[in-house]
Structures are given as C-alpha cells and as structure tokens.
Amino acid sequence: MMKIEAIIQPSRFESVKDALLEIGIEGMTVIEVRGHGRQKGHTEVYRGREYTVDLLPKIKIELVLADQLVNRAVETILKTAKTGKIGDGKIFLTRVEEAIRIRNEERGESAL
Amino acid sequence: MEESVTPLSVLGPQCDAQRERIKKLFESGASAQETLRQLCELADGTIRKVFGELQQVRSESAQGLSLLALGGYGREVLFPYSDLDLLFLFANEKIEEESRPLIAEFSRMLWDLGFRVSSAGRTIDECKKIEQDNAEFHLAMLDRRFLDGDKSLFEKLDTKVLSVAEKQARPFLLVELQRLTRDRLGRYGNTIFHLEPNVKDAPGGLRDFHSTLWMRQLAGDRRDPRFSPVNEDELTRNAVEFLSAIRCFLHYSNGRNDNTLTYELQAQAAERSLGIDDNLRRNAAEWMRLYFRHARTLNRQLLRYTEQRAQVAVSLRQRLLAATIGARSEAPTNRLFNVRDGLLEIANEQAYADRNTTYELLAEAAKTGVPLSRDAERSIAYIMAHPELPQRNSRIGWPVLSEILNADYPGVALRPMHRLGLLVEALPEFRSIDSLVVRDFYHRYTVDEHSLRTIEHLQDLGDSSDSLGKHFAPIWKTVDRRDLLILSLLLHDVGKGMPVENHVTGSLQALEIASDRLKLTPEEKAEVHFLIEHHLDMSATVQRRDIFDPATVSGFAATVTTHERLQRLCLMTYADIHAVNPEALTPWKAEMLWQLFVATSNHFSRTADRDRVHASDEAVLLEQVRQLVGGAAKSDVERFLEGFPRRYMAAHSPAEIASHFALYRKLGSEPVQTDVKKTHHAFTLTLLSADRPALFATIAGALAAWGMNIVKADAFANAAGVVLDTFHFVDMHKTLEMNPDEVARFQQSVGDVVNGKQPLEPMLKGRLAAGMARPPKVAVATSINFDDGSSDHSTLVEVVTQDRPGLLYGIGSALARLGCNIDVALIDTEGQKAIDVFYLTSQGKKLLPQKQELLKEVLQGTLS
Q: Which of B208, B692, B822, B823 could bond to B302 as cystine, CB 3.0-4.6 Å?
C-alpha cells in the first residue's frame, strides 16, 4: 500500500477529484493548506495597506491505495492538476505498513 | 424455609420478554406516554423485587435505608435505553457502611438484567447541605420518588430536610439552572433549526420542557396570565408526546441511548407517520416541519421562564382592549420605548393597537441592537393571534422594511419578526423555507435559519472582528444600501422551497413578486436580482479558479461591474458560507475570498480609464436614453456618451444617464449644470461642465464651504472634454434637510464658484478652521502611492489618509497647482479613512518621475 499526498492548485481540485472518481478511487482526505515552493508569494496593496501573500493557498489530497492502483492515480493527478505554470504543486509517495478499518477492524488492503 | 434471590436466569428472560412486549406495543401505535409508563413500571417492579429479595437474603433490616428514583425516572418517564438515576438514602454513616455489599450486588444484578444504573448515595445529614459544584444532582432531586426500603426515612427527607434546604437553595439553583441552560443552548447555536436535531438536548428538545418545569418549580410556578392555560397546556402536551414518541423510536432504532434524529430516521419516522394522529401522508421535509413546530413550543416556553418577570394582575386581553379603545381619544405619548434589563419594551401599551408602532419598535431594535423583551414579543404575538382585536396600519411597505434592513443590527429585528410571523407577513415569499430541511452534507440548519444566520454574521462584523471577519468588518461598516443586501439574503434561498429545478430561478421568481408588492425601484430590483443570481459566483471563483491569474480577476470584475456591487457580493458570500455550519468558513476560505475581493477592487480602481465607451456599440442604451428624455437625436446621445470610461456606465443606471444627458443638453445655455438629489442617507450633486483648470478642487471646495462631508465621488470626462462629476455628501449641519429652499441657493452657489463669480477662499475660511479643531477619533496613517503600469496614458496616484473637512479641496488644489489634469477620480471613504484614486496627466502625458516626487512632497505637506 502507498500513501499519495498531492498538493495542488485549489482551482484544479474539482477536476482532480472527478478524474479520480472516474478511475474508481472514491476515498480521499482533503485538507486546505497554505505554503509555497518555488512559487513565491506576492505583495498586494489595498487602500494604502500592504498585504503580503507569502503562503499561497493550496489543496492537499491524501489517498492510501493498493500498489496496483498507485501509478494510475498518480498519472491521473498529473494530467488533471497540471496547468504548466509555476505553483502547480507536488506529489509525494510513501509506503504504508498497515491499514485498519475502525468499524470492523478489517486489516490490510481490504480495509481501504 | 431458606430465602433466596430469584436467579438471573429466570429474571433476565422475564425482563427481556417484557421489554419486547412494550416495544411491540409502541410499534403497534401505543402512545409514547403509555410506552414510557410501562417501561417505568417494569423498572420499578424489577428494582423492588431485586432490592427486597437481597435485603431478605442478607437479613438486613429495611430500617435506615431508602431507595429513591431521581430525574426522568423520578418523573416516571423512562425511555427504552435511558439511565436509571437512583439514590440510596441512609439514616447515618454506619448504615451506609453496612449497606455497601448489598448495594454492590444490587447494582450488578440490575446491570446484568439490562438496566443502565446511575446511582448515588447520601446520608440524610448530607442532604441538608447544598453542593455548590453539583447543581445537576440537586435538580435531579427535585423529581425524587420513593421506590423501596424505609419509607419513613424518605418522608423525613421530603417533608423536613429538603423542604427547608431546597427553599433556601432556590435562588442558587435557579441561577445555576439558567447557566446550565444557556450553556446547553449555546452548544447547539441557540437554535432549534438543526437539520439533524438531538431531540433530548438541542433547543426545542425534551430537556427544554424539563428545564421549564424545574424553573417553574424553583420560581414558585408563576404562570403568565396572558396565555390561556388550557391552550398552552395542550400545545405543550402535544409537543412532549410528539418528541417522546420520536425519542422512543430513536432508542429502539439505534439500540442505544442515541437521540439524534438523522436524515435516515427522519425518512422512516415520516413513512410511519410517527407521532401523528391524522392519516395524511407526509414526506420527511413536511414531517420535520411538524417537529420544528413542536420544538418551537417547548423552546419558547423555556425562554419565557429564563427571563421571568413580575406577574401582572390584569390580563393582557383586557389591557389591549382598553388600550385600543382609549387610543382613539388620547394623545399619543412621545416615549414609546423603554429599555429595561437590556431589553426593549413598548412603554405605552396603546401603541400596540397600531402595527406601525410595532415596526417602529423593531426598527429601534435594528438600530440599537437591543433585543425585544419576551414581554413585548408576547404582546405582539397575542395581537396577531386575535384578529378580532382592532389594529391599524397592518400592511408594511418598503420604506419601513428598508429602514429595518438598512440598520446596523437587522438580525436583532428579523429574528423576532420570524418568530412572530411578521416576517412572512412582510415577505410572504419567506414562507416557502419556513422550517425547511434540505438535505446535504454541509448545511447544519434549516433554510430559514441559515438565511437569518447570514444576516446575523454580517451584523456581528459591526461589533467584533474575529480573525475570520477582520477583513470584512470595514466593508460591512461602510457598504452602501445594506437594505438591498439584506433583502437579497432573505430571498436568496427561498427557491429551495419552491417546485423548481434550480433554486436560484425560484428565488428570482419570488423577487419578481416581492419587488412588485414592495414597489422597489427598477434600480433596487436590478441590484437585488444581481445579488441573488450571482450569490454563488464569488464562492465558485474562489474555489474553482486561479484567483491569482489576472484573467480570472478581470473576468470576475466584468461580471460584477462596480466596486459597490463587489462589496455587497463579497459580504453576501462571506455570510452565506459562514452560515452553512460553524466550521464552514475556514481561515483558508476567508483569506481566499479576501484575496479575490482585493484583486477585483484594485482591478476596478486601476483600469477605470482603460475601457472607453464607443457609443455606436451601445444601441440598446442609446435607445433607452433617447426614450427616457423624450426622443432626443441619436447623434446627440452618441456625442455625449462617446469616450466616457465604461465604469461610468456601470456605475449609473440608464435613468441616471438620461438625466445626465438632459443636463448636457442645457450646457449651451448655461456652461455649468448642476443637479442635487436626496438619496438614502446622503445627497448627490451632479455637475456637468466643459473641462477647466482646478474644476474638481473647486467643486470640492464649494461643498466644504457649505459644510458638506464628501463620502464618495467620481469624475469622468468624455471624448469632447465634457466633465461629469458626481459627489455624494452628507449634510453635516442638516442645512438642506431642514431647509429644502436652500437647495436652489446651494446649487446656484456651487455654479457661481465654478464659474468664478463667487470667490471660494472667504467662504472656506471659517469652515475649515472649525473642522481642523476637532481631533480625529481614529488615527489613519497617510500613504501616497504612484502606479505607472496600470493605465496606458495616465499615472495613477492613490492617496489614503485621515478624512477631514476640505480634504478633497486640499488635494485637488495641490494637483491643480502642479498642472496635473484629472482624467478620472474615484473617491471613497471608510469611516475616517479617505481613499482617493486619481488618474493624472500632465500636458497630455503620464507624470514624469521628477514630477511624481514633487507631487508626493506637496501632497505630504498638504496632508500633514
């Protein structure tokens, strides 16, 4: 099992979610986050006051998937989250040792 | 013969069989009351049997130990999976010590028999003391009932010990009960209108009823004389039976003490017409409306007792009848309202005979933020429930409603208006969402509750700025035409209760009807229409578009068209998301919304001269203007409109443009044309003239000389060099308001100053000195920023500074002295902050860097 953490542009979230649903991936955790990589923030002046937006709003999607689904999910995210501009985000993959469904204590891939 | 305890193997199946029988009885249609009674009897019988047998087996005396039922069980109300609250009462500590093994075995047996025992033990001496940190125990003791054991010990407790102790503790218990009640209601957002309510603890739940009983008991049961007890008791009885039936159903359905009426169980309850005697089939939403009606009865009753007032000897009906008759001959009093204990009341009850006075009371509440007293609400409710009582002026018009909606605290008036039925009287379209449950994963409240909460979230911006609201508070405090924004919020979701596919379509249909009835002007209707139609746009843009992409901002700005509209739409979006549920507006979303607002607002102020009107492309507007002025030549209208910034058209309705055109046509006979109109809380001066040096500064100076405070202004020029300046100002000294004849003299004076017939300086002298003497309430730091990139042919300068009399005159004069021509001016104020944006040219070109430096220096000198 692998955990996919994808940090994407908020504007791409709906498309990514729909595309993942289309390939049969229904379970995901979505978190509103702020941060930046190479895409630095900017300063905006509004009515005489400066507002520095150094941490930009992003959406983080977390998925834990059986190994055979991981590549497809990553490709889907890449395809749908990409705008080609700086700030499109990143995908991180980590191995997951165990998954347990709280309701019935099922374990392993069947708990996903 | 040796005594023995009936074994669990015998008792257990007996209890289970009895429980099953009672469950079937309930499912076959027995009332909740009957079901609860039988469950209580089962518990009573089992407890007495087990307790008695254990005492016999252990050869323990029944003297000195008494077993009591407390709380709900004490009231003989026992739900299928509720706890059994028991008290072991001991004559002394010795008996308490000796009884421990018996109590342990007794409790174990009851648990094994499927009863959830929650027990406490006290000696009779301990019961004399009031435990300050355990009010809940003392409240449960109010419902004590003898079960088994030493009856004389219980009677001693009841008649000698507690009769004294409880009497002394009444004030403490009442305060504690009110505190516990406030905390409980607060946990549920102080509303009965939850989509998945907890029928025990949420406002309107059974706990409200029990708390009411305790409060009545503690307060000496002062019944309010203005309600018929029979009617009230019947309503209460029905509500308690309905909610008890639901709670039984929930316990049986969940197999545990879970009192949440989920969507799934709502559907099942509606399917079996739970709690309803008639045979009408109802869907879940209709059935839930019955739930809310009953919950409202219990909640209203509780709230009445939480603010109990002195009893009045004469019935309200008698007083109102007398007042109505008396009102015909007696002169009305000037003091209509009183504030007592922080609540608003009508001082003169004769006034209730006139619905206009009721609305004045509500407008007062909306202006001051002081809520109506329960007494005032009850009086209004009584009149509304008795149409035979004579009433004057029962119909509400837009001016009255608008006054309420435009105030700082509209929610303080709208909430009681909704409770009393006055809101649907004023706005019948709201009825379609009354107590309406629309199921989704996000909303926590019924649609009417959601709508009222949007308004309350906005009014909260006026008093406190938490981290979510800090950016939006200044917008709320300064936004124009709040009445239209609040009307939009009241109507934005009414389509959810209409048989239409898209609720926005329904809401717009409702607006059509409402605007005709209320007689909104076409401009007012258009604004509300826009806000309802686009109320999801800003949220959708924030969530589905890249708000840092200039194209997104530009596209969004094209939809919104004006800064004023942007302010209203932003507040509407903020409130709409906030009222979905307490967690819906995250700091992340609030920040995104704010970013889009700032970007769009800046887009407006930085692109004001970018898009110009090409009159030949505006066939529809041309025709509208021609018709409005009674058939002018098309070429004249084209000449007038040609070259104005598009913002001019966005900021003004066709009717306003037509009136400007009418002034334009008179320029031949008089080179300066003015028009003054009274708007909601201000005046508007429109001035047309051929461009001339220092024109903007001169007009601003003339206004300052008359003591007018400019709150907003814009200046545009068309291709032919005709300048159209609009100044919105507040008449600080009420010169024009108190003396309508002065308007003509004021117009003449402004015209003379602009034409150079009247010198400005002498007029300004005294006025500016007086204004300067007053220290500002809030200090605003001055900032002056230049922007050469936003416009192709002008330099933008944004001046943010402390607002003061004559400020615009000072800035305008400085610009004129340095030879700066104002192409476009956008003037705004936020409280004591002035925000002035000028598009400047010098000799037809952008300002050179040296000139910018010099201008900055001069302006800093002027503003210091």
A: B208
